[in-house]
């Protein structure tokens, strides 16, 4: 089974590319989706996060206020590392379990959609890395619009990640999402063609 790691910087359009891969019929394991599930109320990670950060990070319904938690951890790298210490090993376990299941089914290709593939040191889990990138000014603009952030907040989030230029040097394939959807789709379909035996 060939495992492709799909990654990118925040607001580069990785989710758009991931949807295109799903539409093309490829199985996608979404690390963000797993990350959201493991911090739901009642889960062990949820309890640890509340112990570490206090009840102030909870919404009225008891769920995590992800936006507030994001503001806290992006302002203080030590707190981000603390959160990673609670969640990363759990996310990796779920991913490994899903990969094992697909392997037993004889699945030839699987996409691992992992935003922080490099930052989390998970390159060893994949056979090939596809990076979604875009121009920095566009990335900041998209992030500000998407998450309703100030320019300073958006730039702080970019600084918390490895620069796209460094990621591009480590990736086997780069998908430039700076233009329109049609341009991105052509690149994705071309890459899918390279996977066919």
- Helical percentage: 40-55%
Gyration radius (Cα, Å) is 17 Å
Strand residue percentage: 5-15%
What order do the strands of the largest sheet run in, or round the barrel if closed? Answer: 2-3-1-4-5
The averaged pLDDT comes out at 94
Number of strands: 5
Secondary-structure-based class equals alpha/beta
CATH topology of one domain: Rossmann fold
CATH superfamily of one domain: P-loop containing nucleotide triphosphate hydrolases
Uncertain ranges: none
Q: What is the overall shape?
A: globular
Named CATH architecture of one domain: 3-Layer(aba) Sandwich
How would you summarize this macromolecular structure in one to three sentences?
With 197 residues, this protein is an alpha/beta fold. It is built from nine helices and five strands; from the N terminus they run E-H-E-H-H-H-H-E-E-H-H-H-E-H. It is globular, with a radius of gyration of 17 Å.
């Amino acid at each position: 089974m060939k495992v492709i790691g799909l990654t990118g910087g925040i607001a580069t359009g990785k989710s758009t590319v991931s949807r295109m891969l799903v539409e093309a019929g490829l199985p996608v394991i979404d690390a963000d989706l797993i990350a959201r599930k493991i911090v739901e109320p009642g889960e062990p990670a949820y309890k640890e996060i509340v112990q570490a950060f206090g009840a102030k990070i909870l919404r009225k319904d008891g769920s995590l206020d992800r936006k507030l938690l994001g503001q806290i951890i992006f302002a203080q790298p030590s707190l981000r590392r603390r959160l990673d210490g609670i969640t990363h090993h759990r996310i990796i376990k779920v991913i490994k379990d899903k990969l094992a299941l697909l392997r037993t089914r004889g699945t030839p290709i699987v996409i691992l959609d992992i935003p922080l593939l490099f930052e989390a040191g998970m390159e060893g889990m994949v056979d090939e890395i596809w990076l979604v990138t875009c121009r920095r000014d566009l990335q900041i603009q998209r992030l500000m619009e998407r998450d309703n952030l100030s320019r300073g907040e958006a730039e702080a989030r970019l600084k918390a990640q490895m620069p796209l230029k460094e990621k591009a040097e480590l990736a086997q394939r780069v998908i430039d999402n700076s233009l329109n959807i049609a341009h991105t789709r052509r690149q994705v379909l071309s890459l899918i063609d390279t996977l066919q035996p």
